[in-house]
Amino acid sequence: MPVTGDIESLIQNMNDALADAAKHDRGIDAASRRLRKKLSEIAKTCKDVRAKIQDERGE
Asked: For residue range 28-45, what is the model confidence (pLDDT) as tens digits?
């Protein structure tokens, strides 16, 4: 997948997390757990995309 597609996927995942973020703000514990999981997945994807870019550039 091109890097553009990876970034679009990250944006979609962050948009999906917005609903749980709003629920977290209202104090719903289950939403907090889901939000932490989504953010962990987003962080992992960011690291993977960064590594992919470095590999493609030969750095």
From this structure: 999 999 999 999 999 999
